[in-house]
Amino acid sequence: MSRILIQTEKLGKKYILAHKNGNSEGLRHLVQAVATQPFRWLRGLGRGGAKPAKAGRKTDHQEEFWALRDLNLEIRQGDVVGIVGRNGAGKSTLLKILSRITEPTEGRVKIRGRMASLLEVGTGFHPELTGRENIFLNGAILGMSFKEIKRKFDEIVAFAEVERFLDTPVKRYSSGMYVRLAFAVAAHLESEIMLVDEVLAVGDAQFQKKCLGKMQDVAAKQGRTILFVSHNTGVVASLCNKGILLRQGRLIMTGEVRDILKHYTSEASKESVEFQPAVDRAGITRIVIDQAGLSEGAFNLEVSFRSPTPLNPPVVGVIVSTMMGVPVFATDHLMHPEHYNSQSLAEGTARVRVPDLHLHPGEYRATVFLAEMGAPLDYRRDVLSFEFVPRRPIAAKCSPIETIGPLIVDARWELLPNEIKIPAGPVLDENCPR
Questions:
Q1: Co-location of 206 and 304 in the same domain
Q2: Cα(380)–Cα(40) distance, rounded to whole angstroms?
Q3: Hey, is 216 helix, strand or coil?
Q4: Residue 284 belongs to what domain range?
C-alpha cells in the first residue's frame, strides 16, 4: 500500500463575520464622528475608560462562520483526488490551508513531500517583472532551485506558449496568459503533491485539454498526488480516481470518484427548486420539471423569474447533460423564433416542451439560465437531475451512456443475403493455340 502524503485530523477554519448596524448613518454623521473622535478619546482617558470604537465600525454583533469543521482525511501517494461541492462548501479553503496560505483554527495537518499549488490567477507573480523574470520568481516560491528552473526553462516556455511575450511585463498579460505561465511552472516542478483550484477555467478549451493531459501524465508516470477542485464533473470523472464531497465545511463522503459524483449529483434530484434572488437583481425564482412527462418520453420544464426592471425581452434557456457533464442538447427562446413571443416582462414564467426525447435510458441533469438578449443575468448550473425512461422499449440491453453516448438516432438497418454468383469459365485468348 502506498504511503500517506496528506493527513488531516479534526481540521477546522473559523472566520468572524461582523454585522454592521442596520441603521447606518450618512456621510455627514461619519465625518462628524471622525472629527470629534480625538476629543472623545482624550475624555475617555481622563475618566480612565477604554478607547472608544473607531468611527464607522459600530456593529450589532459578531458571528462565527466555520468554513471547515472536523475534517479528517488521508490522501495517499499517486491518488488523483477530485474535490467537489457547491459554492461555499470549503473546497478552496481546504487547498489554502494545505498550501500554507492560511492557518487552520483547529486541528492538525501533516504533509510529506514538496508541494506545488495553482490556486489563483497571478499567485507568485510580480506585475512589474517580465514573464522570464517571473518564471524564476515563481519557481523559487514553489521551491525550485535556480539550476532546476534553468534546466526546465525551455520546457516551461514551450508549454505556456508565451515565447513572443517572454520579455513583456506580466501586468500586460491577459488572465489566460497568466494561467498558462503559472500552470507551466507548477507542472514542471518535481514535486510529490500538486494542488489545482478552478483557475484552469480561465484558459481556453485547447489549453485546458493540454493541462489535463499534463496532469494525467505526471500522475501516471511520476506517481504524483494531485488535488483538483472543479465544478465540471465530467473533467473530474476523466482525471481523478478518488473523490471528496464537502458540504458547508464538513466532509460528507470520500472514496471512488464515480461514487462521489453520483452522490453529489443526486443531491439535485428534485422535481422543483426555489431561489430568492437579490431585490435589486434579475434572477430565477423557481424551476419545475415534469416527472410524469418524463415517463411518457417528454421533457417539460417551467422556469419562473423576476427583475427590478422589465427585461426586453427575457430569454430563458436550458442545457441538458449527462451525469458526467457531457452536454446532450440545449435550447432557448432565440433558437425557436417561430414560437418566440417577444415582450417586455419584469416577472413571468417560461415553459419549454420537448415532446419526444431521443435519448438512451439513464440519469441526466439540467442547467438553466436567464438572459436579456445575450446578456447573462442568472445561471444555475446542474440545478436539477432526472432519470429518463424512453417511451418506446429497447429490445437489447444498452451499454452505459459513457460508452455509447446518450443520443438515439432514427437509423434504418437492413440485413440482406449476398447473391451467390456462379463463377464463369476460363476466358480463352483467340491467339492461344487450341
A1: no
A2: 51
A3: helix
A4: 272-404
The three cell numbers of residue 344 are: 417586455
Q: Is 325 buried (19+), middle (13-18) or exposed (0-12) by CB count in 10 A?
A: buried
Closest CA to 123 of 110, 95, 106, 142: 142
pLDDT digits (tens, 9 = 90+) for 174-194: 878 888 888 888 788 778 888
**259 φ/ψ angles, rounded to the nearest 5 degrees:** -65, -40
| Residue 156 sits in the same domain as residue 294 | no
CA angle 214, 216, 220 (to 5 degrees): 120
Could you say which DSSP state residue 140 is in?
A: H
Residue 285 and residue 234 in one domain: no
**How does DSSP assign 153-184, residue by residue?**
HHHHHHHHT-GGGTTSBGGGS-HHHHHHHHHH
Other CB atoms within 10 Å distance of the CB of residue 326: 15
Could you tell me which residues are beta bridge partners of residue 194?
A: 116, 226
Which of 153, 161, 155 has its CA nearest to residue 137?
Answer: 153
Closest CA to 167 of 215, 138, 133: 133
C-alpha cell at 182: 503559472
pLDDT in tens, 354-411: 888 888 777 888 999 999 876 889 999 888 888 776 544 444 444 445 556 677 766 6
Residue 161 CB neighbours (<10 A): 15
Query: Which candidate, 278, 347, 280, 277, places its Cα nearest to that of 311?
Result: 347
Tell the residue number behind the cell numbers 465600525, with chain if given: 57
User: Which stretch of 88-97, 155-164, 380-389, 420-429 has the lowest confidence by average pLDDT?
Assistant: 420-429
Q: Looking at residue 115, which CATH number applies to its domain?
A: 3.40.50.300
My answer on whether 355 and 395 are in the same domain is: yes
Residues in contact with 34: Cβ distance below 8 Å, sequence separation at least 6, in sequence order:
55, 56
Contact 279, 323 (CB under 8 A): no
In the prediction, which pLDDT does 398 show? 45
DSSP reduced 3-state for 425: coil
**Tens digit of each residue's pLDDT (9 = 90 or more) over 153-173:** 998 898 888 888 999 998 898
Starting at the earlier edge strand, list the strands of the sheet with 106-111: 59-76, 4-20, 106-111
Give tens-digit pLDDT for 21-55.
555 555 666 666 666 666 665 666 555 554 555 54
420 assigned to some structural domain: no
